[in-house]
Amino acid sequence: MTANNNENTGSQYASKKPKTRRNVHPFKRDVRAKKVIRFNATEEDDHALYERLRTGNTATYKSLKSQADDLLKVRKTLPVFQHKREIMTYIESNPVTVLIGETGSGKSTQIPQFILEQLYDKKKHGSIAVTQPRRVAAINLATRVAQEHGSKLGDQVGYSVRFDNTTTARTRLKYLTDGMLLRELMMNSDLKEYSVVIIDEAHERTVLTDLILGFLKSLMQGTRPDLRIVVMSATLQAEKFSEFFDNAPILFVEGRKFDVTQYYLKAPTDDIVDAVIRCCMQINQGEQLGDILCFLPGQEEIDKAVAIMEKIAKYVSEESPVPLIVPYPLYAALPPMQQALVFAPIKGFKRKVVFSTNIAETSVTISGVKFIVDSGLRKVKVWRHQLGLATLLTVPISQASAMQRSGRAGRESEGKSFRLYCESDYLKLPKQSEPEIARSDVTSPVLMLKRYGIDDIVNWTWFENPGKEAIVMGLQELYELGALDNRGKITKRGEQMALLPLQPHLSSVLIKASEVGCLSQVIDIISCLSVENLLLNPSPEERDDINERRLSLCNAGKRYGDLIMLKELFDIYFYELGKSQDANSERNDWCKELCISLRGFKNVVRVRDQLRVYCKRLFSSINEENEETRKIGEDSDEISKILKCFLTGFIKNTAIGMPDRSYRTVSTGEPISVHPSSMLFLNKSCPGIMYTEYVFTTKGYARNVSRIELSWLQEVVTNGTAVAKQKITSSK
DNA sequence: GAGCACTGC
Length: 732
What we know:
The chain has four domains: 3-253, P-loop containing nucleotide triphosphate hydrolases (Rossmann fold, 3-Layer(aba) Sandwich); 260-434, Rossmann fold (3-Layer(aba) Sandwich); 438-493, Orthogonal Bundle (Arc Repressor Mutant, subunit A); 494-731, no CATH class. The chain is 43% helix and 17% strand. The chain has 29 helices and 22 strands. Strand 19 (663-665) and strand 20 form a beta hairpin. Helix 17 (443-452) packs across helix 18 (468-480) and helix 20 packs antiparallel against helix 21 (519-530). The longest helix has 21 residues, at 299-319. The chain binds one DNA strand through residues 133-135, 160-162, 165, 177-180, 182-184, 186-188, 204, 206-208, 297-300, 331-333, 357-359, 361-363, 378-381, 392-394, 436, 499-502, 530, 532-533, 537, 543, 610, 614, 673, 675-677, 681, 695, 697-698, 701, 703. Residues 1-27 are annotated as: Disordered. Residues 259-453 form the Helicase C-terminal domain. Its EC number is 3.6.4.13.
């Protein structure tokens, strides 16, 4: 994947007709004739750039400066640095510039610094925002750039991510997550402190990045025609960004990476795990030493592959003189300790083989990888608006994704990539993956736009319009939650919901709890729900033991379900284990015993602290004395009150128990099963259930399930009540 | 009888 392969890629877009737009852009006159400018790279290892250098807090100005001088030598070798003047000329003379920089071009660290220098040189006001899709990236980049700039983190250069803000009044260059920039947009609608906004990793097309692009365009057409924007992207999706911003110029900077040779199957395979194992064995026999990274769609395939490999590896290396294969699984739900094993270099005549989900495609980098084995598959969550249901599908990846996966073998030296599909099938793959927003629930984005004051959501400056159906379902949902009135205007409740760092349904639960006086309990539960992978997946051998332990600890949870169980677990973690001197190791042991993520619970406490601060600000009428923190007991009145609060947000996510002990959803009458991870999986005596998630895999599963009484469905008062009532009566 | 990946003043 050198730049040469990309020479003609522009033509794939050539037949696309530019969409006609209703508005004339105020910046149109500045735009130059569109052309793609290429810069060539020099040969050099880019890892010098990313290796971490430590600055203590005690670092003096002089030592910071001399460190920055040393780093300047490294910076000067970067491809972007060598074309600094040309790049800056474009950025200076165009309102929007699209910059395509391959891995190792140094775009994320250097371009923001060039612009910062320019602001200083020209004595201009305002600061620079650089958005990232992930927290770690924002933190690492800011740390590195502060060193290069010769300043302490938080002085001229800082970062802002949830729970962690190092920026000060002096900060001129700010790395932040795109969720954070959206928050800032909600508070300060024209981003007046920034003169330049840089959107990095735009090709990943996360929902939040797409939303920011839309907001920036509408800002430029409205109150901020002076705003400068740089869209930075790794792959060639440049035309779409350029077109969106009225044919902004596209700059191309070559990166520094090594060649990766591609191999394809001659005939397709139908057993992907078997094919992956065979491929690894072949590499192990025929290729030089170097680690293998295998991409598989999900946990099931990964666990299976690891189990098979463990059995074969020892036998094979005893039979013939090949390296001993050491297999590792890697996926997000894996306990962090086990994830960490993947990064340790392996010594001796051995070969590390990592079986991974998409997590290793962008979020996690493993060094030492020389070979890629790519199943060509991934799992995606697709939201079905009509059913209010998420489906988890295994689908073929895109060409861009296949290239990204292959590229993982070329970070340190030349590599090889084995694609377990035919080349003809590769060519049939879509160029890019479908953007996330096209397959997501847009209730939350729609609420953001309403809060921002947009009336006509369908015709907003969407970078990618999710479609009328999705938007209408979002509006309907918000109306039923009481966030919008019957004219579609945002209500006071909606304003509050938009300000809370929660999905609208949970925000609505929180507001209800503040009204009926069980706020602190509900905050604890919602905090647990907000943390992914809090309860980890035990291995099949431990599974029954751990389920048993969890059940025996949570008496109320056993009867009322997962939400109450989460509160019981939180109470033990927070109150009972928090008291002793040795709280940390006690908590650690306890988490291990129950297969709970300790890091997860630490995050729960941070979310809880943040929510408590927000609630104090938002619901000032609430008397704090009545809201003192309390542990949950087994008082059924109190538990009913809490569950009814949840019912106001999740009235649509309810199902009724049938005589044959199955459940059918209230809204559509579809059969639904309690997920086996639920406390209520074995409990067959609930009159009804409420769940926070409805996911279709092999069948429809309810997750985070609670027991409800059918009479509650009629008590809950929201705009949605009428609908629910009608459904209940007609289903009887 | 089962769990793609991120993220929020």
